[in-house]
Amino acid sequence: METESKKAKSILPKKTPIPEQDPRARRSNFDEVALGYTPEMAIREAGRCLQCRDPQCIAGCPVNVQIPMFIKAIREDNFTRAIDIIKEANLMPAVCGRVCPQESQCEKLCTLSKRFEPVGIGRLERFAADHEMQDRGLKVPVTEPRSGRRVAIVGSGPSGLTCAYDLARLGHTVTILEALHEPGGVLVYGIPEFRLPKKIVAREIEILKRMGVEIKTNAVVGKLISIDEIMDDFDACYIGTGAGLPRFMGIEGENLNGVYSSNEFLTRINLMRAYRFPEYDTPVKRGDRVAVVGGGNVAMDAARTALRLGATGVVMIYRRSLAELPARKEEVHHAQEEGIHFELCTNPVRIIGDRGTVVAIECVRMDLCELDESGRRSPKPVAGSEFRIPADTVIIAVGTGAHPLIPQSTKNLSVNSRKYIVADEETGRTSRDGVYAGGDIVTGSATVISAMGAGRKAARAMHKYLMQKKLKP
């Protein structure tokens, strides 16, 4: 049998390029940037997989998709088989293939990456999902006979949707309670259309509805209904509300007109369609000179969105170097292609206004010193290096915290020092009997696929709990 190293000798060293919109065109539209593989491209890329005997890529996937198996099916031109394999573990491959950080998860552990570029696992996952949409339309999974147990899912983001999917498939009656007016959580309010078209999310939610899952919107748990009241009517509850409390820097000028949190800015545009005002009656300031503070994926989304709204200049302000920038490399590359300017090793010290409105942001240069607890070099201000960047809009994208509404309104629900719900990592079990939690409300801000993994683990534990529990009269 050939060893993996021998197989690699005949492998193409680089990923099959994925077609994309021209940067000059996409700067002014919200259409998807990456256009996806053709069947020929997908088969070519699938041929790069070594089909390892001990595939580490699976361990890098939070929901444990059988990656070599689905790639082998693509290589053999059996696209239906490929998507069926993926969906055994992942409800939303069209979503994950677009927004998951494969480079730090499954692709990071790809054996091929020891010598060449890893297999484009995310691109192939997206291809399989998109092909199914074109070829088969909506395919509703077979569900087990009704168990008689009722489950409430609080939050319709990736964690809640995954938990709902697995529990519905196991025969339980599932109701999702969503605080906003549309389901989807961060998938619809946080991620821009040009990275994740809303029709993709709507399609996955329609599958859940056809499985019998009820979705109630405008249902603010902790305000209109409590967890205690939910537990009076349901046999179990899963809290997957995410971490959506905006963080600010605490610097002078953050209350000026023209200063947004990334949460508000992206929610207005993505969920409330502010970019189509006045067709949708949600206003948003279309800045001419926009400064975005932060270096993560959310900051990148905000910067690229501001550009598409018509800004003549967008600058990203990040206190470390490009090497430490936490956003996905693909997104950084796209932003650079689109003309976004990066002010690196730079930190804001105050926002300057004139008659209540932003006119500039004052920054200081940073010197990178020894490694801190995150493993990155610690930034320290350079004395006397202050300078100003003209701006009429400032977007703060420095992270989020746990929203206090449910923890504060729920008795005997343990939270940690950062106000996140305490839940078992493997089961999602909280300090309240029958109440489970997972995703960002437990871990803090993480990835879509990590939240899905938490929802899947909790669903398994909840199923066991439910089947041992007597039916409510």
End-to-end distance: 61 Å
CATH architecture of the largest domain: 3-Layer(bba) Sandwich
Give the C-alpha Rg.
23 Å
Low-confidence stretches: none
Name of the CATH class of the largest domain:
Alpha Beta
Structural class: alpha/beta
User: Could you describe the largest sheet, including whether it forms a barrel?
Assistant: 5 strands, parallel
Q: Give the number of helices.
A: 17
Residue share in helix: 25-40%
At the fold tier of CATH, the topology name of the largest domain is FAD/NAD(P)-binding domain
Oligomeric state of this protein = single chain
Q: Give the strand tally.
A: 16
Instruction: Write out the strand line-up for the largest beta sheet, numbering strands in chain order.
Output: 3-2-1-4-16
Tell me what portion of residues adopts beta-strand conformation.
Answer: 15-25%
Mean pLDDT: 92
Can you lay out the helices and strands and say which pair or pack?
Blueprint: H1 4-8, H2 23-26, H3 39-46, H4 67-75, H5 79-87, H6 93-99, H7 121-135, E1 150-154, H8 158-169, E2 173-177, H9 186-189, H10 198-210, E3 214-216, H11 227-233, E4 236-239, E5 245-246, E6 259-261, H12 262-270, E7 289-293, H13 297-308, E8 313-317, H14 329-337, E9 341-343, E10 346-354, E11 357-371, E12 377-381, E13 387-390, E14 393-396, E15 400-401, H15 405-409, E16 435-437, H16 440-443, H17 448-468
Parallel strand pairs: 1-2, 1-4, 2-3, 4-16, 6-14, 7-8, 7-14, 8-9
Antiparallel strand pairs: 5-15, 10-11, 11-12, 11-13
Helix pairs in contact: 3-4, 4-5, 4-7, 5-7, 6-7, 8-17, 12-13
In a few lines, what is going on in this structure?
By secondary structure, this protein is an alpha/beta fold. The protein has 3 domains: 4-135, Orthogonal Bundle (Fumarate Reductase Iron-sulfur Protein, Chain B, domain 2), CATH 1.10.1060.10; 150-244 and 401-468, FAD/NAD(P)-binding domain, CATH 3.50.50; 252-398, FAD/NAD(P)-binding domain, CATH 3.50.50.
